[in-house]
Specification:
Trna Endonuclease, Chain: A, domain 1; 4 helices; 6 strands; single chain; 113 residues
């Protein structure tokens, strides 16, 4: 990340992509098998297949904008299973649920295991 910052203008704000990289690396540490997924309504950032079975993850810098909150978890809507679906954000709020999709603050999620 440091080399990228040197090579790219200092004015570029890439917090969402950096958060995705952090989540990916942590998922690799926790589950070992991590895939990018595709739902019928769009891309799923990460799908894991760990010891407790599959799990789905979407990552966003913030979902305080209603349009973003509608768009980010939409890839989960037509999945026909009951595996965990998690939306990881930098919104420092209590964990909430959006139609069965658990939203969690990234720092809380990182410290969880």
């Amino acid at each position: 990340m440091g080399l990228r910052r040197i090579l790219v203008s200092g004015n570029v704000r890439d917090t969402g992509r950096i958060l995705e990289n952090i989540v990916f690396l942590e998922l690799k540490r926790r589950a070992e098998t991590v895939y990018a997924g595709k739902g019928t309504d769009g891309e799923i950032d990460f799908v894991t297949n760990g010891a407790s079975g599959p799990a789905y993850y979407q990552v966003a810098e913030s979902v305080r904008d209603p349009k973003t909150l509608e768009r980010k978890p939409s890839s989960f809507h037509n999945l026909d299973d009951n595996y965990p679906k998690t939306l990881i954000t930098l919104d420092d709020e209590l964990p909430t649920s959006h139609n069965g999709i658990q939203q969690i603050y990234a720092l809380d999620w990182l410290m969880k295991e």
